[in-house]
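Task: sequence design from structure.
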């Protein structure tokens, strides 16, 4: 029976977080997509949301937008709630 995925189920590193694997933790810079993938999967996979840089930029810009909307909402509606 052929393997359907490229995931390697063998070895000592399968239950270790990606950030602590020997082949990952070489102090090489990671892009935003890898960082968000590690965040969303609890450091289990670094390419969970794809290989495109645009996915990381989308999540970064979304977070900035949510924070900006929250701050702006507090500033605008602070007078109405007091």
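Answer:
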């Amino acid at each position: 029976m052929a393997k359907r995925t490229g995931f390697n189920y063998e070895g000592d590193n399968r239950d270790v977080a990606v950030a602590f694997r020997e082949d990952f933790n070489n102090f090489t810079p990671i892009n935003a997509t890898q960082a968000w993938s590690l965040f969303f999967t609890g450091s289990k996979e670094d390419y969970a949301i794809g290989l495109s840089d645009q996915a990381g930029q989308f999540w970064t810009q979304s977070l900035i937008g949510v924070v900006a909307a929250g701050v702006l909402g507090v500033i605008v509606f602070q007078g109405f709630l007091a």
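The CA atoms of residues 33 and 51 lie 7 Å apart.
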